């Protein structure tokens, strides 16, 4: 009788250990599925450099109207193909990148082509070039305002700020 109790205990323990192993295997499979879905639905490789350029030129949660020249110089923002190499206008959006990205989806309204207008106004700092300056001595004057923003989007990723559209 003792042998059968010991055998039963071993079988019960073995079965419990296999169930534990099954749970671990299921967890590993679930993690692999989740990891592959993040890769499949993450940022496409061809968008990454354009999105990074957009962030460099327009993400400015802490940029003040007094920082325009310093920020534009530090970030290396220029306008190729112009007589003086200085960008005429650059706008910094005073929000985090997640709030900005939402404009390309449920937080924006489709416009022409790939443009989306924000459903809510954003605080921005608009930096305008003062006349007569040449790169690398570009001088800017900044103005803080709150307005709807219009973004060029590619597969729900912001890749362009549309400077010319400022009315609500």
UniProtKB/TrEMBL annotation:
Q: Which residues form the Ribonuclease A-domain domain?
A: 47-165
Q: Does the keyword Lipid biosynthesis apply?
A: no
Q: Which InterPro entries does the record cross-reference, listed alphabetically? A: RNaseA (IPR001427), RNaseA-like_dom_sf (IPR036816), RNaseA_AS (IPR023411), RNaseA_domain (IPR023412)
Q: Which Gene3D superfamilies match?
A: Ribonuclease A-like domain
- Indicate the secretion signal residues: none
Listed SUPFAM superfamilies: RNase A-like (SSF54076)
What family does this belong to?
Belongs to the pancreatic ribonuclease family.
Which protein are we looking at? Answer: Ribonuclease A-domain domain-containing protein
Q: Which organism is it from?
A: Cirrhinus molitorella
